[in-house]
Amino acid sequence: MSFNAILSASRNKTPILEIVRHASKKTGGSTKNTNCKVKPKHRGWKVQDGHSVRAGHMLVTQLTPRFHPGLNVGFGRNGTLFAMLPGKVVVTCEKFDPNWEHTWVQRIYGGRENQTIYKKYFNVIPEPQHTRFKLIDEV
Which residues, in sequence order, are bridge partners of residue 125? Predict the structure, then answer.
């Protein structure tokens, strides 16, 4: 018996379902990272010189210390400068005297030991206290 005869006999006696397998995914082409949009961090000055601020107000956001804390200004863990007292913001350019023993200072300012370095300092001048006191007689 030939193969064609066996095949035709099996077709007539038992139904064979033909199964067609389709591709489950399209052919993969190269893609560019078009959806990786990085949100801006909005770092820099938040308050200009001469503006009035409240306690806890952010003055500057920064990664590296470009601006330094002065009078009544705190330095956050992430480099943020914030006002510690309510008052008026004053930005000054002052002489910077770093600790040359520190490894971070040696890495950043190496080779500038004999030069004068000036940095911007943020200061908050507190608001004057009111003068509406009432005198109370001693008991």
Answer: 88
